[in-house]
């Protein structure tokens, strides 16, 4: 904090004490609000002077964000949850209260009542008749935000960012509209919204490292969920045929412009459907959201112009690898041949299983080419331990990942409902875990037992809401669409912290 800020804080504290000496509570209580700024603008934006005069008194409350003194008159701007509105105060209208009004600082909260009118410049304005002091601001609001340091401060002090940055407010208003639209879309198609545990004895449903905690009363270790998948599929067993959850997941990984250890997903499951049905449903969902949020299927995300008009491209996993490596790659292709082709393109593969090489080569070479919406389909079984095998090729599974502008947006597959096959794959994953792979799937015997009671054929999908909002709001970083992203401690580095990029 610089000297000027310290001096401003000192002056504000003096005003705080002056309020108390005059018998005014600087941190007041209830105030009866009758209108919001945006509602007044929408209702009275085109009103005539006669209509404004007949509208009647209004009461608003919010934060003072600007003040302009003109002797015995004063203009101010009040910001509430919805928008800003101009206030006009006169000494002969407020009387003794006028002196206190002009002493307001940007950041103070007040309540005002008054009549609506329009200034000579045409701005809708409240002629203030009474003013109530609601809360004193002791720190000055910043005037400008720029540069890398200030970007980080915006994330750390989101409460200030939301005051001064209109774009930030609009992003989070869009986030709320996005989630409402998702719910409406699924509810209209017969899906039931449910809640599943966030603390789980066995973390399952994804390949990720979990956060661990301990329940003292029960004397047991628990894990913050990495995905709700296995619980949602238990509900399919229980007879709920279409379910969804807008869920918070936690994965113990580094942070980046695309990853936050705590993030939000939409995950849904539909009985008697397969992954091809969900490709059509996903196209319809994205189209619905695009029309609702942006009014168009043509979007910009960073440097990429996007066209969301369906149908979207389908690209088989091994076709993508083959095209990029210049070698016909199948699940049975000799790993050494694939490794030589990958090495020629800069991918060094030490000795290890072929699936690891396929995954690395695809992520490094193929994904950066996927700009327009593309369903990558038909993954190898080894990379999809919860997906159903393809009937015509058991080395592959009925799965897709959706990519837009080089980013993975969704993951879906026809669900494996064969308990014998599922148990075998869990045991294979347990072997990987025993060899040091701390992201491998755990063996969940209760989930296998649930499958033994019978789960209908079904398909399920997960869509990252944070990343989806990045696309619709045209933002380059996940930190721009999460209100309070995880950051390393201010002024230092946490022990064992992952790198931020």
Contiguous helical run count = 16
Give the termini separation: 27 Å
As a percent range, the share of helical residues equals: 25-40%
**Morphology:** elongated
Q: Any idea what the radius of gyration is?
A: 29 Å
Strand content: 15-25%
Strands of the biggest beta sheet: in what spatial order? Answer: 6-10-11-20-19-18-15-14
Largest beta-sheet details = 8 strands, mixed
Residue stretches low in confidence (pLDDT < 50, at least 5 long) are: 145-149, 495-501
Structural class: alpha+beta
Task: Count the E strands.
Answer: 20
Global mean pLDDT: 92
Quick tags:
8-stranded mixed beta sheet; elongated; disordered C terminus; 16 helices; alpha+beta; 35% helix; 25% strand; 501 residues; 5-stranded mixed barrel
Describe, in plain words, how this protein is organized in 3D.
A hairpin with a 4-residue loop joins strand 8 (212-215) and strand 9. The chain is built from 16 helices and 20 strands. The chain has 501 residues and is an alpha+beta fold. The relative contact order is 0.09. The strands form five sheets. Strands 6-10-11-20-19-18-15-14 form an eight-stranded mixed β-sheet, sandwiched between helices. The protein is elongated and about 90 Å long.
Produce the secondary structure layout.
Blueprint: H1 3-21, H2 37-44, H3 49-53, E1 58-70, E2 73-79, E3 84-90, H4 91-94, H5 97-102, E4 109-118, E5 124-135, H6 147-156, H7 158-164, H8 166-187, E6 192-193, E7 199-200, E8 212-215, E9 220-224, H9 229-237, E10 242-250, E11 262-271, H10 275-293, E12 298-301, E13 304-307, E14 313-316, H11 317-325, H12 335-343, H13 354-366, E15 374-377, E16 389-390, E17 393-397, E18 399-404, E19 407-414, H14 419-434, H15 445-453, E20 458-464, H16 465-472
Parallel strand pairs: 3-5, 6-10, 14-15
Antiparallel strand pairs: 1-2, 1-4, 2-3, 4-5, 7-9, 8-9, 10-11, 11-20, 12-13, 15-18, 16-17, 18-19, 19-20
Helix pairs in contact: 6-7, 7-8, 8-10, 9-15, 11-13, 12-13, 14-15
């Amino acid at each position: 904090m610089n000297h000027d800020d310290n001096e401003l804080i000192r002056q504000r504290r003096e005003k705080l004490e002056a309020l108390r000496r005059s018998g005014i509570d600087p941190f007041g209580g209830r105030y009866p609000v009758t209108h919001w700024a945006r509602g007044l603008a929408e209702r009275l934006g085109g009103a005539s002077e006669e209509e404004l005069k007949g509208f009647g008194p209004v009461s608003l409350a919010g934060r003072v964000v600007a003040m302009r003194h003109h002797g015995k008159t004063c203009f101010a701007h009040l910001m509430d949850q919805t928008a800003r509105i101009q206030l006009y105060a006169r000494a002969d209208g407020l009387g003794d209260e006028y002196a206190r009004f002009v002493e307001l600082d940007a950041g103070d909260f007040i309540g005002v009542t008054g009549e609506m009118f329009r200034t000579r410049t045409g701005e809708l304005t409240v002629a203030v008749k009474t003013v109530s002091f609601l809360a004193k601001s002791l720190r000055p609001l910043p005037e400008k935000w720029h540069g890398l340091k200030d970007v980080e401060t915006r994330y750390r002090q989101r409460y200030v960012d939301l005051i001064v940055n209109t774009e930030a407010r609009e992003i989070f208003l869009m986030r709320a509209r996005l989630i409402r639209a998702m719910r409406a879309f699924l509810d209209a198609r017969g899906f039931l919204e449910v809640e599943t545990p966030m603390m789980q004895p066995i973390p399952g449903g994804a390949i990720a490292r979990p956060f661990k905690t301990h329940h003292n009363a029960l004397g047991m270790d628990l894990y913050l969920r990495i995905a709700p998948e296995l619980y949602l599929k238990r509900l399919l067993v229980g007879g709920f045929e279409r379910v969804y959850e807008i869920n918070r997941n936690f994965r113990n990984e580094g942070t980046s412009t695309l990853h936050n250890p705590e993030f939000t997903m939409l995950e849904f499951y539909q009985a008697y459907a397969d992954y091809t049905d969900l490709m059509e449903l996903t196209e319809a969902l994205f189209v619905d959201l695009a029309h609702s949020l942006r009014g168009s299927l043509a979007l910009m995300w960073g440097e990429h112009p996007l066209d969301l008009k369906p149908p979207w491209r389908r690209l088989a996993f091994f076709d993508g690898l083959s095209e990029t490596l210049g070698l016909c790659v199948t699940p049975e292709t000799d790993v050494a041949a694939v490794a030589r082709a990958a090495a020629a393109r800069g991918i060094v593969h030490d000795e290890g299983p072929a699936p690891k090489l396929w995954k690395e080569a695809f992520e490094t070479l193929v994904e950066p080419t996927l700009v327009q919406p593309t369903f990558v389909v038909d993954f190898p079984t080894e990379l999809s331990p919860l997906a159903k095998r393809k009937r015509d090729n058991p080395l592959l599974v009925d799965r897709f990942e959706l990519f837009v502008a080089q980013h993975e947006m969704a993951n879906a597959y026809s669900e494996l409902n064969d308990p014998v096959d599922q148990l075998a794959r869990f045991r294979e994953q347990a072997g990987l875990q025993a060899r040091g792979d701390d992201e491998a799937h755990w063996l969940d015997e209760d989930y296998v037992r649930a499958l033994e009671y019978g789960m209908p054929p079904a398909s399920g999908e997960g869509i990252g809401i944070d990343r989806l909002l990045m696309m619709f709001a045209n933002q380059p970083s996940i930190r721009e669409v999460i209100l309070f992203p995880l950051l390393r401690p201010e002024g230092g580095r946490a022990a064992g912290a992952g790198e931020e990029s």
